[in-house]
Specification:
about 260 residues; alpha+beta; 3-stranded antiparallel sheet
């Protein structure tokens, strides 16, 4: 009976030892599996990250290429076709430029008419030499030399559209000149050779804006007392629409007649 108990105890102890060994043997297998799973997860994560990084590099590289392409595109210069016009009335010579389907004077008119109203800014003759004369609307209508005319709003719209629209055309048409006041973020490029200058305007009693704005008449009236035109400011990129009293003094850009 006693030996039977010892035998049973021995069997129990052996079973416990075998069970313990079995647990220890199973535990590393589970850890190894867990470690393998973790390694696989890390490897997978690393591969995903590597793939993502590579994609990011490609995207970044593409962006740089696109940006570089844009820089090249924006730095491409417009071919400018210049000519010269000599006004037979007073012998003054003006640069001209072809922009799209139009031929414009590339300078403001500086003809002194024998009738009507016109002024040099601040009544200073040197301002006429630099910026051209300022004319009231009625005088501007007939101020251009033979073969040329004061453009209407449709002609101005054509120029505006060709130069990229109202929001961009100002910078593209302004002269690259220290006569324009400078502002951060505003770069005048004169892409088409229009060479607009800030000649200011006359309101009928006072002069305003030389160095900061240019104002030009259109031949299109607005009622009986006003007329349309265009203006550019030094602190933005716009070629803006304006409506001025016909007695005001604006600059004149003549447009060549079409056959």
């Amino acid at each position: 009976m006693t030996s039977q108990k010892y035998a049973l105890a021995h069997i129990a102890i052996t079973a416990l030892l075998l069970l313990n060994c079995s647990d220890k043997s199973a535990s590393p297998t589970t850890e190894s599996s867990s470690s393998t799973a973790t390694s696989s997860t890390i490897a997978s994560s690393s591969a995903t990250h590597s793939s993502s990084s590579f994609t990011d590099v490609l995207i970044s590289s593409s962006s740089v290429i696109a940006s570089s392409s844009n820089v090249v595109s924006s730095s491409t210069t417009q071919t400018i076709s210049n000519g010269t016009l000599t006004d037979s009335r007073d012998g003054q010579a003006y640069k001209t430029v072809v922009i799209g389907s139009q031929t414009w004077m590339a300078q403001n008119l500086n003809y002194t008419p024998t009738s009507g109203n016109s002024w040099c800014y601040s009544n200073t003759a040197s301002n006429c030499t630099t910026y051209g004369r300022l004319y009231d609307w009625a005088t501007a209508l007939t101020a251009c030399p033979t073969g040329w005319h004061l453009p209407d709003t449709t002609a101005w719209n054509t120029l505006e559209t060709y130069a990229g629209g109202s929001a961009l055309a100002g910078n593209k048409l302004k002269a690259v000149s220290s006569l324009w006041a400078t502002y951060s973020g505003i770069t005048n490029t004169d892409d088409y050779g229009f060479s607009a200058l800030p000649g200011g305007y006359y309101d009928g009693s006072l002069f305003h804006g030389v160095g900061s704005s240019g104002d030009w008449w259109a031949s299109t009236p607005n009622g009986t007392t006003d007329a349309y035109g265009r203006y550019m400011y030094d602190d933005d990129a716009f070629l803006s629409h304006t409506n001025g009293g016909q007695a005001s003094g604006f600059s004149v850009r003549c447009l060549k007649d079409t056959p």
